[in-house]
Target: ATP-binding cassette domain-containing protein
Amino acid sequence: MLTIKKLSIQIENNIILDDLSFSIEDNSITSIIGYSGIGKSTLVKAIAGIHHFSAGAIFYNNELLNNTKVNIGYAFQDYGLYPWYSVKKNIVLPLQIKKIAIDQAFYRSILIQLGIDHLIDRYPSALSGGEKQRVALARAIILKPQILLLDEPFSALDTINRTKARDLFLKIWDEYRPLCIFVTHDIDEALLISHKILILRDNSYIQIDNAVRGKLKYDPEYVNMLHSLQEMIAGSN
Ligand SMILES: Nc1ncnc2c1ncn2[C@@H]1O[C@H](COP(=O)(O)OP(=O)(O)OP(=O)(O)O)[C@@H](O)[C@H]1O
Model:
């Protein structure tokens, strides 16, 4: 279980997140939604250990989260690929850093499932935005991390490929069910994939159970939930 306790983050004189507390259970997906600039990426970076916080603490299984002890996979919003490394080297880098032998079968299956097996010798400059995102996703998953942080992982994909990538992600996620935090602007995406949803708003936040996960988009319960979420994001609920 990941527990965020009274977390506050200030950048220069701006309070980005203030007194945020919530928990995420193992084997579950939590989406983070909210207006652009509200602090979604900042929160994910703090959990990844690459952004300082001004107050509060982050625990994993009741111990302070230490990213040298706990494997954290992170797909950055801007991909975060190293331009001087090939696709293969970018993907296996987390294994090399942690001195973990490559699981060839898992590596091959990720490449094939994400449709990037033909790209492994290319460099990031020779990839499309959607290809870079899939490489970033492969790199986040390669360690089979206990905590998987995905910051708008499908934003560069068109609608058809986004739907495919989402289904694929859920298939891969289901193989070992890591605790996953998924930042998205797409409320439908949040409703389709996540067990819980954290809504960040100006000066407040709400964490809700997603009762319509797995339901069809035209199901009345789904439509009601979609409308309530829209109101919650706008701050009128
Ligand atoms: N290095 C920085 N210096 C100053 N302000 C920053 C810095 N990094 C982020 N911010 C500000 O912090 C706020 C939160 O940014 P963040 O990227 O977390 O938002 P977000 O909710 O992920 O936005 P988006 O949905 O547009 O990706 C924004 O107002 C941003 O301008």
User: Anything to note?
Assistant: The domain at 1-68+179-236 is CATH 3.40.50.300 (Rossmann fold). The helical segments are 40-48, 87-97, 104-114, 129-141, 159-176, 187-193, 220-234.
